[in-house]
Amino acid sequence: MPRLTPLTPDTAVGASRGLLADLVSRHGQIGDMVSTMAHSPAVLGGYLQLSRAMGRAKLDRRISERISIAVQVLQGCGLCLDAHVGAARAMGVDEEEIEQARAGTSADPAIAAIITLALQVYREPTSITDEQVIALREHGYSDRAIADVVGVVALNILTGAFNLLAGLTPESDTGA
């Protein structure tokens, strides 16, 4: 059961009112996560800016979705996990790779290496080594793609933690 009430452009105040009105006018409707984030204009604005910025990431979206799956399994946000599994399927990631991502790995050594990095960024960034970054470059990842991993993880921490705090579950929303 949701702990925080979703807002609308009519019930939101301050900067959130304008942000929600803009989103509704552009998309028609918005999910519970975004409308509930409107309680904090700072959180909503930060989420929207980071989400837009990560849309320009160099890291392949199919890899980003597998990273998101791995992070959300650890974080425990069912709403986010369902959204990222659905997005991965829509991008053609097969069920075996989705299951591998749930386990924090991949059958592809290059993807497994970047998922490992993402999980270290989530759990213990001090454990990342120079050799690990060199190996990622040898797998063909640019410095920009490697840096994008931090953004993917940060966005997942923000959305997952918010949904868990707000009590949003797959049954209470149709999308993250």
From TrEMBL:
Gene3D superfamilies: AhpD-like. Residues 45-115 form the Carboxymuconolactone decarboxylase-like domain. GO terms for molecular function: peroxiredoxin activity. It comes from the Bacteria. Coiled coil: none annotated. NCBIfam families: ahpD_dom. This is Carboxymuconolactone decarboxylase family protein. It comes from Streptomyces griseicoloratus.
